[in-house]
Amino acid sequence: MSRSVVWLLLVGAVVWALLTADVEMAKLGKAGPRLWDFLTRMVPPDLTIWREMLRGLAETLRIAILGTLFAVILSAGFGILASETLMRPAVWRPVRALLAMVRAIPLILVAMLMVGAVGLGPLPGILAITFHATGMLAKFYAEAIDNVATGPVAALESAGASKLQQLRYGIWPQMAPVILRDTVFRFELNLRESLVLGIVGAGGIGLYIQTYVRSFQYEKAASVTLAIVALVLLSELVNTLLKKRFS
Amino acid sequence: MTPAISLSGIGHAFDGAVALAAVDLTVMRGECMALLGPSGAGKSTLLALMDGRLRGWSGAAEVLNAALSAHQPPRRQMRADTGFIFQDFALVERQSVYQNVMNGRLGRTSHWGSLWGRFNDRDHAVVGAVLRDTGLADLAERRADQLSGGQRQRVAIARCLAQEPKLILADEPVSNLDPAHAEKVLELITGAARKRGIGVVFTSHQPELSQRFADRVVGLRDGRILFDHPAGLVSESDIAGLYHGAIPDPQLRVVS
Questions:
Q1: Hey, are the CB atoms on A160 and B76 less than 8 Å from each other?
Q2: H/E element, A66
Q3: CA nearest B221: which of B201, B245, B237?
Q4: Which residues does chain B have within 8 Å of residue A174's beta carbon, measured at their own beta carbons?
Q5: How far apart are alpha carbons A91 and A112 in whole angstroms?
Q6: Sheet containing B224-230, strands listed edge to edge, beginning at the edge strand earlier in sequence
Q7: Are A170 and B103 inside 8 Å of each other by CB?
Q8: Range of the domain at B168
Q9: In the predicted structure, residue B177 carries a pLDDT above the cut 50
Q10: B180 and chain A: CB distance < 8 Å anywhere?
Q11: Global ipTM
């Protein structure tokens, strides 16, 4: 395709999007004062709801922790099945395709289905996170297995090491930092994603945001937002520290 | 003296290409042998066979009085008896020098204990002595990926010695070293072997060094043994024939 055709398609797509969507430019002009009004009503944040905030944060954290734990357990199995070095193509190809499909389903959709299946509360959130995270983590684990250098393992075998000793002293030391890094990274993602699960009734602090915004209690919504920002920053800090420790 | 290695009629093909053809070779216990030959001559293949890591070969091979199988790896004890120094060192990068050397004890120590990270006093004593012999005592806590090339090589040698092997096989131990270092490394390997009264087989591209450190030099080309002489009796035409084909050229001097 020539360059001009590409440009034409790009411009065409933007024009089509502007014309067909209900984008009423006039509304944008009036939005300024309204946004200002919205923001001023959030100040000062109402911190008297700290008990609800803590409860919501704790539930979100629990969803992220348990979702990550179950995803790690499932990914250990699926990671082995998806490994090119351990499995035949007849096994790892379909497993990888399955994992790609799992990854392609948006988390919020999985959460809605789980709420439908097991009802409201943190359980559907945990299940949704587990399902969604396994799609990514199992692929990462498979890659960690496939990237193990075979030379040192062969050297241990030559020295008389048993298969288990080779795993313990040759394979695991190479894999562990990668597995740990990927798992911590996935935990941080799980934490961020579990924040919105409450909106569809799958537990966590998202429920409070939705409730406060819908009932025009913007000061309270502001407090919850601050709490979320604090939690995410904290998890990023922990992640950075761990990365330094295990590089 | 009894033989440490005895090979007869060894053949091996690699994707249809002949890697080893009708190789007969005997190495005595305590003997130091150099395998010379151009790249692709089959030196590394022959060494891997002696280490029990080659599959699908034909012929008969006996190492330290036990027959090798062409289909399955040797038993744990036998693998521990044969020490191998890998050309690329094959260290576990994230482990300390100490643990890398301790890995050489895996075939000797208690199996289940080692899985829990426990090694006995004797294991620690052997590793300590080997680290001193190889000049690595000060680097014991350093991670393998933080070492220089020369230090890494010494770790690979130390791991092999920690096995308390009854035979040492070394694949191109001095291929990437300058002459001074190459000499030191060969001194270290052959010295350690003499001290322990065990045999060494090493492959090399350096005829002069090989003759200085080995008792016997074997020339390998296209998977066949071209010559097999005591170190002092290798002639320039032997070397020329090995590296430059059938016509020895007296004008040509082979340096490496």
A1: yes
A2: helix A50-81
A3: B245
A4: 92-94
A5: 31
A6: B82-85, B167-170, B199-204, B32-36, B216-221, B224-230
A7: yes
A8: 3-90+150-244
A9: yes
A10: no
A11: 0.89
Q: In which residue ranges of chain A is pLDDT below 70?
A: 1, 20-26, 247
Alpha-carbon distance A40 to A34, whole Å?
A: 10
Q: Do A173 and B107 touch (CB under 8 A)?
A: no
Q: Is residue A41 part of a domain?
A: no
Q: Do A174 and B83 touch (CB under 8 A)?
A: no
CB contact under 8 A, A151 and B79: no
Does residue B167 lie within any of the structural domains? yes
Residue B246 has pLDDT above 80, yes or no: no
Determine contact: B92 vs chain A, CB below 8 A.
Answer: yes
Range of the domain at A51: 46-245
The rounded distance, in Å, linking the Cα atoms of A112 and A107 is: 9
Residue A30 lies in a domain: no
At A72 the pLDDT is 97
Count CB neighbours of B79 within 10 A. 25
Alpha-carbon distance A89 to nearest alpha carbon in chain B (angstroms): 22
Rounded mean pLDDT, B8-26:
91
Which CATH number covers residue B204? Answer: 3.40.50.300
Judge whether A231 lies within some domain: yes
Q: Does B219 touch chain A (CB under 8 A)?
A: no
Q: Residue B155 pLDDT > 50, yes or no?
A: yes
Chain A partners within 8 Å of B52 (Cβ)? 158
pLDDT tens-place string over residues A1-42? 688 999 999 999 988 888 766 666 667 777 777 788 878 887
CB contact under 8 A, B84 and A168: no
